[in-house]
Write a structure and sequence with these properties.
pyridoxal phosphate binding; 15 helices; alpha/beta; 7-stranded mixed sheet; single chain; 5-stranded mixed sheet; Aspartate Aminotransferase, domain 1; Cys/Met-Metab_PyrdxlP-dep_enz; 36% helix
Amino acid sequence: MATSVVHAGKKRKGADDEDHLVAKKSASLPAVAKGEDPMAALAMARHEFGEHGGVNMSIEASATFTVMEPDTMRRMFSGELGPDRDFFIYSRHFNPTVLNLSRQMAALEGTEAAYCTSSGMSAISAALLQLCSSGDHIVASRTLYGGTHALLTHFFPRTCNITTSFVDIKDLDMVDGAIIEGRTKVLYFEAIANPVLSVANVPELCRVAHDKGLTVVVDNTFAPMVMSPAKLGADVVVHSISKFISGGADIIAGAVCGPAKLVNSMMDLHQGALMLLGPTMNPKVAFELSERIPHLGLRMKEHCRRALEYATRMKKLGLKVIYPGLEGHPDHTVLKSIANLDYGFGGLLCLDMGTEEKANRLMNLLQNSTQFGFMAVSLGYYETLMSCSGSSTSSEMNAEEKALAGISPGLVRMSVGYSGTLEQRWSQFEKALSRMQG
């Protein structure tokens, strides 16, 4: 494992320092073979020791950085010297602590490079704005997080003259037919869709897009560790780190993972979307997140194990449950064929209660009578979080758009936690269900 110690007042030198994930030429991240365990890839990522030899890295909280020679600043602004050689200008541009978290994210997703941002939406917005210009066109899945859908439907056309056609990504002919030669630049979709948990056939979608010269951008927020879109052909992977990767429901953050050329272009002093729009991650946040990523694999396995067990039991009770780990789910075979081994099928499940009234009644009992979980948006927390998607996280969509996306009024999205014992939590669920039916 490559390691590096930073000593006060010195610039690192030597061969081991060429593995920065954002480099002027390219990144020399060890190649991640298709199918390699993401935990193994993380273990091979460079470990940054603290300034005085601490096992944890130091937090570089400085907004600006000094140089030893006057000419060095000119060379940094001209692009001759950069973070690949430990030369930093300003923390909106590059920050060493944020860069370390970015290396971890690149290792996790098996990409050349990555950079972390202040939110998931800023990562999505910046990536698409870097890849598209005025007059360009995007093809996107019709089933997306409500905020992303609003960005593509309303904000981009109004402010940037970037338009989007929404398609059923399971229909490859429909995807292909929506591509406008010379105008369409990006195919965008979620690996596992929010909130209906449909699974994207990433290799096939990449084949269709790449045949027409498109860049494939995949939101993998719902499936870190479970799926590795870049290994399946995707060009760019975006994340809301606020969810499973953070795991504490206490941090808002995002990431763009992809080729070093793209990430470098996003940080360009004159044309970079991240540099110029400024969705900068606080280095103290980056430090906290870098300490949580090593546990992500263990957490995801338990999220997924419990989700599958709950979904199986709910189905036996006759409930209308949606979970891609169930053999009856229409995308079960696809997910099984492209998922990483041993991580399961995702930490979310959906219960379709038919009406919003029934959905709300169930959630009320689950939280306020039996303490099964909490009514809250977001996901990836150690407690179970529940929301009625149609009136919350997908409320930006109109009735027709929700119907096309398969979001019923009574759809309850559950992010399955791992606190307490499985049997304890299941007993709480059964009690709530019994009271609802009584």
